[in-house]
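Proteins fold reproducibly. Take a tokenised chain:

. . .
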Amino acid sequence: MRLSTVILPIHRWSEGQKTWQRAEELGFHAAYTYDHLSWRTFRDGPWFGALPTLTAAAAATTRIRLGTLVTSPNFRHPVTLAKELITLDDISGGRVTLGIGAGGNGFDATVLGQEPWTPKERADRFAEFVPLLDRLLTEDAVSQRGTFYSADEARNIPGCVQRPRLPFAVAATGPRGLRLAARHGQAWVTTGDPKIFETGTPEQSVAALRGQIEKLGKACAETGREVAELDKVLLTGFTPDRGRPLESVDAFVDFAGRHRELGFTELVIHWPIPDSDFAADQQVFERIATEALAKLD
């Protein structure tokens, strides 16, 4: 099992770069950030762009993997996104993972002046977005006409440092999204079952996650792929456990052990932010980063 962190882009870089460098010093497998234009309770405070932040982080670090959790079609187009990702992958020396999902009904869904897409339209767009992005990142020139997204001789030379392209970590729980993860993903991402976040129990969450992994296995079988080929990533903080796993090293080891038994290969914990839903003791957080995984062995 690997341990990663997600760093929200809320600090000016003169201060924020220290966090990304500290994440590398602590030995995290990867440091991710959210790809939103604004987000939830942070909407009226500082919030910087994901890809420029990751580019700066790539220049400020040397080993840690970097990525988004997650990018969505809400305000992205595959052609422009592909160009930026190839550039980021080059600057980082091949350390980028693209977390990608269908998006939701948050602020990003209406900021460009459009009506929020229905769940079906989000799924339709995602089903077109991911395969086109895959082609754009693996082929020198791409032309394609779609219902939502098109490319006309889009050039992406020299392509990614990582071959055949940088890895996709596809966030999905529904059947169509899981099929996209099976076909195009090198990893699958979940935050758990949102229906039980408020009133469910940790035991119910484990059962729900087990069910999601079983559905992922069926989607892989339909595409002729072994589910073991995909890394399974849990972005923590959105299950009924909430912040309790970060209260102590032992609490986290217990949480990690239960989810490793389910088949998860990577856990992602939020870098502490005081006076927020992601508040946690920084010293305990750093002990978890450096000590917890060894206690699983």
Summary: The chain has eight helices and ten strands. The mean pLDDT is 97. Strands lie at 2-6, 30-33, 65-71, 96-100, 141-144, 151-155, 168-171, 187-190, 231-235, 266-270. The CA atoms of residues 66 and 273 lie 20 Å apart.
